[in-house]
Amino acid sequence: MQQIVQHQLEEEGKRQRDEEVVKKKFWSKMKKYASKVPFAKEAVSMYFCAIDAKTPLYAKGIAFGALAYFISPIDAIPDALLGLGFTDDATVIAAAVTAIGKHVHAVHRDKAERFFYGEVRERQERSDGFPAAQTNG
């Protein structure tokens, strides 16, 4: 019984460390690589799922673990390798999405879409010199 409790405490500690890392570093890495990784929308949707208070603890653990792997500079395949660098990250994100997919709801995907819509608007503003359309609200 003591070993089970110890294991649960260790797992909770790991989840908390992963959560801290993800909350500190996710957005900067995503903004840098969003246009380069094919799993960007899934990762952002999973982030919103992970921070949702309604998401079960086990799903948060899976999401934060996968996102922490994406953020980590130490990968099975270094991110700097063009064409191959994010394949291990994509595999981890895909496995996590498969495992917790039923907890990634429309509200999480909608928030991800809004993030990418904003990113597209920022890139368009920089590239053509005209300000992006302003929205009220």
Helical residue percent band: over 70%
N-to-C terminal Cα separation, in Å? 54 Å
Low-pLDDT stretches: 124-137
**How many independent structural domains?**
1
* SS strand fraction: under 5%
The number of helical elements comes to 5
Main sheet summary = none
Written as H for each helix and E for each strand, in order along the chain, the element string is: HHHHH
Radius of gyration, whole Å = 17 Å
Domain DUF1232: 59-94
Pfam family, one: DUF1232
GO cellular component, one term: endomembrane system
Organism: Paenibacillus radicis
Brief rundown of the structure:
This protein is mainly alpha-helical and 137 residues long. The chain has one domain (2-128). The chain is 70% helix and 0% strand.
Question: Any key phrases for this structure?
Answer:
137 residues, mainly alpha, 5 helices, 70% helix, globular
Could you explain how this protein is built, in words?
The protein is built from five helices and no strands. By secondary structure, it is mainly α. The longest helix is centred in the first third of the chain and has 32 residues, at 2-33. It is globular and about 50 Å long. Residues 124-137 have low confidence and may be disordered.
Give the helices and strands, then pairings:
Blueprint (H helix, E strand, L loop, with lengths): L1 H32 L6 H12 L5 H15 L15 H14 L5 H23 L9
Helix pairs in contact: 1-3, 2-3, 2-5, 3-4
